Amino acid sequence: MTQRIMLVDDHAVVREGYRALLDRQPGLAVVAEAGEGAEAYRLFKQARPDLVVMDLSLPGFGGVEAIRRIRQWDGTARILVFTMHQNAAFAVQAIRAGALGYVTKSSPPEVLIGAVRDVLAGRMALSPDIDHELALSRLKETPSVAEVLSPREFEVLRLLLADKGTDDIAETLNLSPKTVANIRSQIRAKLGVQSDIALTLLALRQGISA
Predict the structure, then answer these.
(1) Can you count the helices (H) and strands (E) in the chain?
(2) What's the confidence (pLDDT) of residue 137?
């Protein structure tokens, strides 16, 4: 039986390359493509793919929020993150949001194919480099951003780091400005910082960026 895949990446050339790779594999077929988080959520409900291969850096709300919304709509959705982010914090947040696998784009093609097979079979899949980063992160004495923030808070932080204001974030995430302001305050309180400048510096020290 052919397993149906949806690709989510904001670069059409990247999607084309990985579509060709996946379509060459026995029993796999790319049936839908999206270039942003909102489009991915909408197309998922239409196409109902067996697997979503999702980047995290997307226009509008990012991959973590897209994963959260897809899993909220369909708790059985199988999602594999395929991204340039090698930071353990992104992997933790993606998995908390509902992803079953995380592979970096620096990985060889066979690692991606193996992860696709594993996630389709319901198994967790991590590329070796991110597995190593996760192991190192557990040795740190200072709690990381990923450990203390929820996926929704992490997405608000990502948008703040992209220099988005409260109203812009509210529109992107379909929230009220008051809710965004409250989340912003929660993020500061959890991370023990008093200003957006301190928040930005903390995020940069931990390798978190938009």
Answers:
(1) 11, 6
(2) 63
